[in-house]
Design a protein that fits this description.
Helix content: 40-55%
Number of strands: 5
CATH class of the largest domain: Alpha Beta
Low-confidence stretches: 88-97
Oligomer: single chain
Strand content: 5-15%
Largest sheet: 5 strands, mixed
Strand order of the largest sheet: 3-2-1-4-5
CATH superfamily of the largest domain: Ribonuclease H-like superfamily/Ribonuclease H
Radius of gyration: 20 Å
Number of domains: 2
Shape: globular
Order of helices and strands: HHHHHEEEHEHHEHHHH
């Protein structure tokens, strides 16, 4: 957003207007070492299998696997990857005044049609020399992936773009469910949905199973695609993931539907006429 060659506003003034420290603009972050990138890959695989592992238990586990790590290092890498152990936390009612947290609306809700409930989450994707983040919009009823996006930063922008693309192509959901991550509580993400008349729903803090279908999607994507390959770049990751999501939506039967149909076949078949126009 900063224009170094702006004819009237110097960089220091642009930083002040954006609320960004000038040092942050000039700072060039050092890439993670190869050892840390390998460790992040192992942490990601372990967390997918044991999401209750916090940094202490993860550090103990890694040391038993032959990695000489301490908790502080594991804690930093898990924070960088956006991973947090699943457990009930106290003081859940405390909310940031500018980032409201919405009530969870899906408990005991009968979901019986497409576009009734959409959900979204973010996961970590390793690439050669670094890592990126993947977000996806999923229709809870059909399990179809309606849109997805990659980014090298954990900001709200790439999530908002994925939602906008899903709504442009498939219409407006009745309910949109996420976790309480800062990307999803930001005005950039919530305001377009609220303006479209969507009811927002958020998981309880530390309860990823409230968004269980997206968690299952990540297992499918990682074991069926990401862990089988070593992406050389974000472009390569995008190309391969595009092919995988097409396969997942259009060719791979989904066990939850009880018959030999794919998620997108179920989505199109049961979509109300009013929403398919």
């Amino acid at each position: 957003m900063i224009e170094p060659e702006h004819p009237k506003l110097p960089i220091v003034r642009q930083c002040a207007l954006l609320g960004v420290a000038r040092a942050s603009y000039y700072h060039e972050p050092e890439p993670e070492s190869d050892a840390n990138l390998q460790l992040m890959r192992v942490i990601d695989e372990t967390y997918l299998a044991y999401p209750v592992f916090g940094s202490r238990q993860m550090a103990r586990w890694l040391r038993r696997q032959g990695y000489p790590v301490n908790r502080k290092r594991v804690q930093r890498l898990m924070r960088l990857m956006g991973l947090e152990a699943i457990y009930r936390k106290p003081n859940l009612s405390r909310k940031h005044p500018s980032n409201p947290v919405f009530r969870y609306l899906l408990r005991r809700l009968v979901i019986d049609r497409p576009n009734q409930v959409w959900a979204m989450d973010i996961t970590y994707v390793p690439i050669q020399g670094g890592f990126i983040y993947l977000c996806a919009v999923i229709d809870w009823y059909s399990r179809a992936v309606l849109a997805w996006e990659l980014s090298n930063t954990l900001d709200a922008g790439f999530c908002a773009r994925a939602v906008r693309r899903a709504m442009d192509q498939y219409g407006v959901p009745e309910i949109f469910n996420t976790d309480q991550g800062c990307q999803f509580t930001s005005a950039e993400f919530t305001q377009p949905l609220l303006a479209a008349g969507v009811k927002l729903s958020m998981d309880g803090k530390g309860r990823c199973l409230d968004n269980v279908f997206v968690e299952r999607l990540w297992r499918t994507v990682k074991y069926g695609e990401i862990y089988l390959k070593s992406y050389g770049s974000q472009i390569e990751a995008e190309t391969n993931l595009a092919a995988f999501f097409h396969f997942y939506n259009e060719r791979r039967p989904h066990s939850s539907h009880g018959r030999d149909v794919t998620p997108m076949e179920v989505y199109r078949r049961d979509l109300p006429v009013a929403l398919s126009a």
